[in-house]
Amino acid sequence: MTGIMNRHRFVAALLCAGALSACGEAAITNITEPPLADSRVRFFHFGVNAPSVNFYANDTKMTAIATTACSTPPIPEPCTITGSESTTGLAYSAVSAGGAYSVIPPGQYALTGRIAATTDKDLPIATVATTIEDGKFYSYYMSGIYNTTSKTSDAFVVEDPVVLPADFSVAIVRLVHAISNANPMTLYARDTVTTTELAIGGQVTYKGAGTFTAIPAGVYDLSTRYAGAATNALTRPAVTFAGGRVYTISARGDITVAPSTACAAANRTCLDFTANFLGLP
């Protein structure tokens, strides 16, 4: 114990010697900042025909679109006020920050999509009560088909148990099912070079997430099929899975509308392709 105390006195003496003022009466200020939360959440707007929204965790705004328009000050002068919130919000098919996650402390939350436009501004249209656990990643999906009478859309939350593969010759892939009027389906990946087709996990029901599955890195034609079906329900050609990366393929749209492999139309079914880590393509 004596040795430790002597060491502390020695360190204190060095600190005092380097200070510009006397140490004897100086107050010690704690400048340690609390660590950032380890939990993360990201947001998908896959609510068919739903208006653009901003996403919230309780009353904390998690996503918004900034405008580049100038806000004219009272006295005419060069514009310096930009970056105010746009009423555009995130439209259908958008993923927050291109798929990036937002930091969120663990706890109980109401995750909500609220209308971004001036009309019905901030009206909640899709809410999920959920628990965010420490150190875990989550994805919130606004889904289903928007009800124009009740002004509501469906929504759900899935956990993203993301672990980067140790083998950089493989990618990790899963399916999330966000089509409210479609049957359970399985995701398949057909290698465009070898023509070998692999099942990515098993059947996934609406609001469900399949198991992350390792497949060789490469270029694949993707498809989903219902149980026992020989024909594809959805397709997306020539998707590149890079080695050492993790991806989510999300089925979205209205199953009664003809599919679009390019995911271009507002309510057509398609397979969305999103990486699971910040900064990954």
Overall description:
The chain is mostly beta strands and 281 residues long. The strands form four sheets. It has a four-stranded mixed β-sheet with strand order 4-1-7-8, with no helix packed on it. Strands 3-2-5-6 form a four-stranded antiparallel β-sheet, with no helix packed on it. A four-stranded mixed β-sheet has the order 12-9-15-16, with no helix packed on it. It is built from one helix and 16 strands. The termini are far apart. A hairpin with a 4-residue loop joins strand 7 and strand 8. It folds into two domains: 114 residues, no CATH class; 120 residues, Carboxypeptidase-like, regulatory domain (Immunoglobulin-like).
Q: How does the overall form come out from the CA principal axes? A: globular
Work out the radius of gyration: 25 Å
Helix proportion of residues, in percent?
under 10%
Distance between the termini: 55 Å
CATH class of the largest domain: Mainly Beta
What name does CATH use for the topology of the largest domain? Answer: Immunoglobulin-like
- Find the structural class using helix and strand composition: mainly beta
Largest sheet: 4 strands, mixed
* Domain count: 2
Please name the fourth-level CATH homologous superfamily of the largest domain: Carboxypeptidase-like, regulatory domain
Strand-residue proportion: 35-45%
Strand order of the largest sheet: 4-1-7-8
In terms of per-residue confidence, which ranges show pLDDT below 50 for 5 or more consecutive residues? Answer: 1-34, 71-77
Mean pLDDT: 82
The secondary-structure element order is HEEEEEEEEEEEEEEEE
Figure out the total of helices. 1
Question: Which architecture of the largest domain would the CATH scheme give at its second level?
Answer: Sandwich
Report the strand count. 16
